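Q: What does the predicted 3D structure of CoA transferase look like?
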Amino acid sequence: MGHGVLGDIRVADFSRVLAGPYATMLLADFGADVIKIEAPAGDDTRHWAPPVDATGRATYFGGVNRNKRSVVLDLADAAGLAEARRLATSADVVIENFRPGVMARFGLDHEAVRAVNPGVVYCSITGFGTGEGTALPGYDLLVQAVGGLMSITGPRDGEASKVGVALVDVLAGQNAVAGILLALRERDRTGEGQLVEVSLLQSLLSALTNQASSTLATGTPPRRMGNQHPSIAPYAVFRAADRDLVIAVGNDKQFRALAEVLGAPELADDARFRGNAARVAHRDELRAAIEQALAAASEAHWVDALTRAGVPAGIVNDVAEAIAFAESLGLEPVAEIEEADAPARPGLGTLAALAPRPAQAHRSIANPIGLSASPADYRTAPPALGEHGGADWLPRARPLARPQDSSPKGPR
């Protein structure tokens, strides 16, 4: 049994690329024994390079695969498939993100695994569910497009834009974690596993929150507004003398404080800007007045002054600045794992050096969930392809869940 709140949980991870691996990494950070099953060529993201880290590892792969073991199993080979089935029948959790029907062809679908392993929590991540959307490829960009996110992202009069990261995959991965933990909790009560289904499209629609609710209520879909908010003003990116900053005013008190800091207190009493509804109706005039005042000083001056006055404001950081900002707040956003004499990484072609590398730290973004008594633990760097293979890599059997209690259950 391992350490951590999930130290007694074994995960058979058949997923690849982002949504599934992100989910299993979050579980592994809290002690789950995640066994990453890879095809002989490895997870596709092993080859998504450059950029690479100091070991020659693709940073895309490295960002979502720490704390895991890697085994290579060719499901098209009888011996490899037998090992995969053995693993699935010894696991507490099985997770996969193949197109619907692929796992069934190998006898590794939920029904087949559950027949042998009734306590299994089986998580299936798809792009568009298992009905009419089965044939659609679940690529994040495609889901952002057909799921409505791109219609509300980008300049008002410009091209629809994707978000700058595969956000839908990340959302689906987080939903998978939540679903798995809910199913494990239910298994604690009943001894029975169940199927957890997460789709990228449903994850996105849920995440649209206020934009989706307004559409349902009014029948009118929202449109792109750049960095402006459909219901609040001023709530956008503004230009100071040297660079951009964000001002996010949520109520009249904050707007009056903004006007005072800008040296234009009369704005708070202007009929066009008295109350949020009026400010939304006259957002263009308001923007012009604010930027005229902001042009007098640097963004650093304004962010400091506005923050001291209780007005939400911040610099538009790049990613490096964002990490440094989190560090300045004491959030410890970076997890470091020492890699002693890291071997060359198979499958990276000319990007991988032939000799072992000196000790160094693998750095990745820390788990976002903070637990006071059983925090995340960063134990091992992302594994080399097949690093944990061999005859004794997995016990032949182990108990999975407590027997179901047949006694009546009262309120808990």
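A (community wiki): The structure tokens above were generated from the sequence. The chain has 14 helices and eleven strands. The longest strand covers residues 33-38.
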